[in-house]
Amino acid sequence: MKLPPLNALRVFVAAAEHLSFTRAAASLGLTQGAVSRHVQTLEEYYAATLFTRQARGLALTAEGEALVKPAREAFQLLNEASEALRLRQSDLRVRMPPTPAMRWVLPNLPDFQARYPEYTLHLLTQLMVHDKPFNRAEYDLAVIGMPRPEAPPDLRLECLCREKLIPVCSPALLSGPHPLNTPDDLRHHTLLHPWRDQDTWRRWLLLAGATQVNPESGVTFDALEYALHAAVAGMGVTLAQASMVTQDLDSGRLVIPFDTVLETEGAYYLVYPHEMAELPKVRAFRDWLVSTMAKSEAASWLSRQGY
């Protein structure tokens, strides 16, 4: 397939829009003579006259009218495809549950933007089910909490942190009519279940030796973030990943009433397709998040206690 000289065609479209070589030259940053030569080149290619001169400027001939619309549409399609490709390289789409987004990414977002100003981060804070297929059309990477590393062969899984749960609550619950002195004192307080699965509290109570607390009592939430807000407000006690509550513990908004740690089979994983592993934007976010997580883990209460 032989194409016409594309630069000359681009100049012709500009001249047709302005119906003036002078105004077309100004819009393209060319001289009027250069515009005229490009149009002449195209007329020689088609062996047809594309413009006629009139008293008030230019007019398209029938041949020019026939050419200008498809030429304009072709450049528009090319521009849209080019822009989509450019955005694909610079737009970074990451999907993760609300709590990791709030606790790990948002506090450190200025650091990411300072390090990688060329990327625009789109953070999709939605709950994810680990056995749902990875949607390449919606996001480039995902953070998923799952009980064991299972993934299709086309996906790469990297463990960000293991799930180690500690109880946290408002410091107000350490005093009052029913202070939290022993794990069995939890029977006087509301258990905040950060997930619909209430088994974590049962396992923690068993590990802590609490026999007088009903593990199924309390309030259940869809995400840890909501349970943490309730805990800060003094509504009860929740179990939380230590690396997610470091700032709350440092500020005194939350305290740890008991030092029993429940290590589960769960973990948080970074997931992305193998073929995207070498994309600069994917490498950038992966390296940054791993580094951020390492600092968060190092600053967590568990590390301070030697776990």
Structure description:
The protein is an alpha/beta fold and 307 residues long. Helix content is 42%, strand content 20%. It has helices at residues 6-18, 21-28, 32-46, 62-90, 98-105, 109-115, 199-208, 224-232, 246-251, 280-299, 301-304, and strands at residues 51-54, 57-60, 91-96, 120-125, 141-146, 155-168, 191-193, 219-220, 237-241, 262-273. The protein has an eight-stranded mixed sheet with strand order 4-3-5-10-6-9-7-8. Helix 1 (6-18) packs across helix 2 (21-28), helix 1 (6-18) crosses helix 3 (32-46) and helix 2 packs across helix 3 (32-46). The longest helix is centred in the first third of the chain and has 29 residues, at 62-90. The radius of gyration is 31 Å and the shape is rod-shaped.
Task: Give me a quick take on this structure.
Helices cover 42% and strands 20% of the residues. The protein has 307 residues and is an alpha/beta fold. The strands form two sheets. Strands 4-3-5-10-6-9-7-8 form an eight-stranded mixed beta sheet.
